[in-house]
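During the first year of the project, the team set up a workflow for recording each protein of interest as an amino acid sequence followed immediately by a discrete structure-token representation. This format lets reviewers and collaborators read both layers of information side by side without switching files. As required by the reporting guidelines, we include two representative entries from the current panel. The first entry is reproduced here exactly as it appears in our internal archive.
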Amino acid sequence: MTPAVVLSLTLALVSSGFAATLKNNVLNDVLQQYLRQSGAANTERPTGRIIGGDRVIDRCVAPFNAMVALQLMPNNPDLKVTYCSGVMLSPDLIVTAGICLFPYLSFEGPVLTAVIGEKHFDFQDDSQVNVLVRNFKIHPTYDSVIGDNNIGLIKLDSPVTLNDCVQPIMRFVRDPTTCSSTLMNCTITGWGQSDENGDLTRNAKNPMYGMVRLVDENLSVLLSSKGTYTTPLRQNSLYAIAYPNSPLQACLLDWGGMVACNMNGDWMLRGVIGEHNCIPPGTSSGPIVITNLEKFASWINSCSADFNSAACQAYKLPQSA
């Protein structure tokens, strides 16, 4: 069972109206099946959220003020759930992982809402803005089975008002004076899908973050081709590696989380979390797979200029025979 199928089933369960009484063992069965079919030796349920990291305490500083939570039913405290993350590129454009949007191509679920500026899951924060999603597009070459080209864009129903806690992030600009194959000062963020008690229908109270080393494309491809890691590198992706002796992992439904690097004092968006690495949980199962936004610059620019243009192409489900 692919992550896209797991997410579709999760959204179906949440939208069915039983989220308030949904038992962990229901999602356990789904996730256990995913683990077995993915070849994991240890079939314990994966833990949600960035683990081995820290809580984001100040959401009103870069890069955290560009974080977006993709929520279902945000106005219902008993049913609301953040199932993926995103990053604000402009007042009305969000980038996320393609897997986060894929279920909505064939699944009539609850209205999807982008929540920006949220500091604490249980409260309506002063800086928090909830905006409905007007439209979304997944990259036309996205592969829902393999996970290649795992990126999507969200057009908000209306632009948000910017403030200290709600700011778009700068996109990555390569430094011509730097020849290093690894960016050292990078952070990953995510809301995850579990609180401290492991309830998959609830979220961590605060977004989480952790520092990683981000390997560039050429070295990532080399490491993958040599079998250095068991984690396969997807097309147009990079490896993010935790620091030595760090337990940091991205976990189930941290997809779409921000991967930002500090370049000469500026935080720049290098990618989004495309694939988690916490199977089996609590152990290192390889690097985190990051969608390399640099490879999609032309598509993002086209969609940013005109979301309805022919140049802003979108993935289409294969026609059934």
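The second entry, processed by the same pipeline in the following quarter, appears below.
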Amino acid sequence: MVEAQQDDAYKGVARLDSEIMRSLDIKKGDVILIKGNRATVAIADRAYPADVGEGIIRIDGILRKNAKAGIGDVVEISKADVKEAKK
């Protein structure tokens, strides 16, 4: 896990390699579950070109804090089971 770029800070975005997204059946815009010492959710987006093939996830400090994980930590990623809100 590495630091999010400034453009993604405070947006709840997690950037993943396309190969990882494909293997987990995650598409851009899907809600994903990130498990460190605690679980949190984020919106999946594609990795920046420089990160392709690196096997990293980029998330901001808020998401890292929510997951109780730090830069360099290994986290578990899965597609979140989200139900639509009803009025």
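For the second entry, the following points were noted during internal review. The longest strand covers residues 39-46. The chain has a mean pLDDT of 94. Both points are flagged for discussion at the upcoming steering committee meeting.
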